[in-house]
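[step 3/7] inverse_fold.run input=structure_tokens len=178
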């Protein structure tokens, strides 16, 4: 399907979504940094990625099952981080907890033809690709006034479609059991 892949994500919501959206809007207006913000329907935490469209029916079945046995839970944000790569990756950090680790383990055990990404970091990317080391200090100055120590109430998981040349798209939402 034209290099399109699937990912399982948790979308940001409530106060932390509002705070992250304000940051991305300010980065866009002041520094013209908006590659991530323009491409995604909602800032999110990627749980699993690089899933094949060939397995979409099985992936949906797995997500339905996991969402039906998982109750809503909270994740604490843990400030901002920066990965030093060819273009800096600015991201919102998250603390791992038993609920998210259990969900990730269930996905890894049941997703077809999928293996654990040993480099996985629980994060929400705020800026990447159009960042540079010349703008990094200005980015950090913008970020310092925002509150990134909040809770995210995880009430659903989402199946996203993505590719290098197209915007991300939410294909389906799975509400967690109540």
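[step 3/7] decode complete -> sequence:
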């Amino acid at each position: 399907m034209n290099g399109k892949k699937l990912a399982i994500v948790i979308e940001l919501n409530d106060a932390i979504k509002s705070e992250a959206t304000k940051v991305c809007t300010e980065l866009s207006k002041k520094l013209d940094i908006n590659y991530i913000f323009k491409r995604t329907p909602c800032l999110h935490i990627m749980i699993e990625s690089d899933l094949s469209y060939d397995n979409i029916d099985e992936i949906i079945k797995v997500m339905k099952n996991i969402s039906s046995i998982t109750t809503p839970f909270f994740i604490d944000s843990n400030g901002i981080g920066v990965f030093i790569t060819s273009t800096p990756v600015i991201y919102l950090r998250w603390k791992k907890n038993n609920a998210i680790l259990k969900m990730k383990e269930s996905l890894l055990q049941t997703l077809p033809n999928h293996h654990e990404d040993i480099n996985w970091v629980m994060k929400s990317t705020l800026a990447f690709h159009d960042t540079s080391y010349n703008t990094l200090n200005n980015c950090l100055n913008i970020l310092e006034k925002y509150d990134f120590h909040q809770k995210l109430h995880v009430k659903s998981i989402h199946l996203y479609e993505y590719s290098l040349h197209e915007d991300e798209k939410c294909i389906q939402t799975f509400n967690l059991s109540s």
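[step 4/7] annotate
The chain has a mean pLDDT of 94.
Residues 5-175 form a domain with the Cyclic Phosphodiesterase; Chain: A, fold (CATH 3.90.1140.10).
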